[in-house]
Amino acid sequence: MKFIVYNVRDDEIPFVQKWGKDHGVEVAYTTTTLNQETVEEANGFDGISCLQTIPYSQELFESMKSMGIKYLSLRNVGVDNIDLAAAKENDVQITNVPAYSPQSIAEFAVMMALYLSRKVGYMQKQLDQNHQFHFSPYFMGRLMSEQTVGIIGTGRIGQEAIKLFKGLGSNVIAYDKYPQKTTNGQFVYVNDIEELLTQSDIISIHMPATEDNYHQFNHEVFEKMKDTALLINTARGSIVKTDDLLFALQSGEIAGAGIDTIENESADLQDSRSTKQVTDPDVIKLSMMPNVLITPHSAFHTSEAVRNMIDISLSNLVSLNNGDKPKDLVD
């Protein structure tokens, strides 16, 4: 039994090596992104572990079938970039890691909310662009306990975010198409998303990307939000229409945004060894705004999360090769 790990980052390598040693399994790794051409590197292996936001195409699964590779184990949660029908047609079974560290992403969302609420971006602008370092009345922020936080999506990550915001004294409301049976007195579900939009000072998105929520946050939605509201997106870039977000920020429809994931993320974004200069005009525009904190899809990135992503992904490959049905099998 031997596996290959694609798109590995330098910080993942020690965890890959340790897992292989602890389990007595040969594990190779490559920094290469997985596609129909690079899959040739997997020839002779019994399974592939991968983490990327670029598409897993029909052609890739056809190549895997021709090579006799039946198992693809993701190191992340989302499957919105996978041609699941093509995987099934080519007899490739897929697993994911639904809960590698919900707290890691939740903490990052709260950090973004604090950064924006306390106007840290304006302080940095004064220092970085104006080369000044002094008090300003424009730096006056708001306490978290003064604000209503709207959580969209109350799965594992959303629930962790609720605990943290509640711990800071925020009033927390939430919306989910499939609500939890109990809220434990930590938050209140609203009847519809419109109610959440109009009541929230901070909106934090924690739902998976689907066809139904593609560009759900658009000009129409931003108009309904408070002009003092902050938007936090640590979920998926496709949920927010970038052009409309830029307009909302520039026109004052909303007060700020924390963006960890953007539309059409490139393979280069996940290349930890890249030295390329940023050229995406939307990223450049957002990065220059003091009321925006933009980060390269890194909300998950803690030692606990990386360890769990490696361990669970590779253990799922063992289960598949042993003929077992992993609990993380994607149907």
Automatic annotation (TrEMBL):
Record keywords: Metal-binding included?
no
Q: For this protein, what is the EC number?
A: 1.1.1.-
Q: Which CDD domains match?
A: LDH (cd12186)
Question: D-isomer specific 2-hydroxyacid dehydrogenase NAD-binding domain: which residues?
Answer: 110-299
User: Single GO molecular-function term?
Assistant: NAD binding
Q: Which Pfam families match?
A: 2-Hacid_dh, 2-Hacid_dh_C
Signal peptide annotation: none
Which intervals hold domain D-isomer specific 2-hydroxyacid dehydrogenase catalytic?
5-330
Q: Which family does it belong to?
A: Belongs to the D-isomer specific 2-hydroxyacid dehydrogenase family.
| Protein name, as recorded | D-2-hydroxyisocaproate dehydrogenase
Give the source lineage, highest ranks first.
Bacteria, Bacillati, Bacillota, Bacilli, Lactobacillales
